[in-house]
Amino acid sequence: MPLLRASGLVAGLGSGIVLTLGCPAAADPRPSAHDVAEARQQAQDRAHQLGKAEDDLTAAQTRQDDLAANAERLVEAYNGELVRLDNARTQYEQAAGRLQQAAGQYQQARSAAAADAARSYRDLVAFQPATAMLSASGGFGAYLQRASVLSHLGSERAATLQQLRDAQEVFGILRGQAAEAYESQKKTAEEVRVARDAARASVDQQVQETEKIRQQKIAISRRLDAARSRVERLRSARAQAQRSRVGLRAGLAVPGWAGSLASGRGGRAAQWALKQLGKPYVWAADGPSSFDCSGLTMRAWQRAGISLDHWTGTQWSSGPHVPVRDLRSGDLVFYGRLSSYPGTIHHVGIYIGRGLMVHAPQTGDVVRISSIWRHDLVGATRPR
Prior knowledge:
Shape: elongated
Distance between the termini: 51 Å
Number of domains: 2
GO molecular function: cysteine-type peptidase activity
Number of helices: 8
Order of helices and strands: HHHHHHHHEEEEEE
Number of strands: 6
Structural class: alpha+beta
Strand order of the largest sheet: 1-6-2-3-4-5
CATH architecture of the largest domain: Orthogonal Bundle
Helix content: 55-70%
CATH topology of the largest domain: Helix Hairpins
């Protein structure tokens, strides 16, 4: 294992330092040719050990990056499932409302039919005896005509009741289907959440392992520095400190030209995103003190008056797709791969100009400015 190998290297360096730095002064301070050759070989051995530690660290960092990309994809997939779950809940509530409305209409029609029946019954009871009907104006024919009208009215009422009853049954079926869809979506969202949490745990574990290897590499490097001359050690420390300062500020300072970003909604969104530089990446966070990738872009465009979901899947379709050569400040730049399922797009940044974007890269990092040119760039969208 890389960790064990690195640990062995650290242990082995202790004796080397004694040989190099702990030798008592001899009467003749000039080293012999054998001493020089031995010291040179020892330095080469230490450099070889440091190279192996660097290889181990590179492999560990690669594993960490792969796990982080997969975890980010699952985070965005979970965000998408939450959006779909909310839609399924809305559809169920609408279906339940329609069923309740249909039941009320059926009950009102049924009450009206009962009232009609009661009136018809009272009218028939009030009819005159048959002899009186035959002698009355219109005679028996008028009576039959009146009875036919009453029967017709009853048939129309019955048909209306049947139609309302059928509608009520249909809405009941639709409500049942919506309830099943909602429960199914809840189950899917939970499964994706479990996968997301497992992926995040894998990333966290790999971050710890990578950090252990990094610390071991640092220890080896320090012991190697101790085996070199004081001049070389001081120069290396100075150069390393300078590189550290440059690396710390890389991507965290607002460029001078950013003050003249294009106006309009895109410019406002980009300007707001620049103000978030240095804030830590946190899974599924959407501010104000931390963000994930789609949480940052959602809040930036919210400041510009555009509402986006917290998911790269729907942000990808939030406006027209624009060619990369035509990018403007505020455009969203996406990474992953294109397919019929938008969840394969796992990262998004907000373009600021000159081939640069503001984005929340991954766990352990902060909101920063980076180049948009990556191998997994799939396209850009201009929200509206």
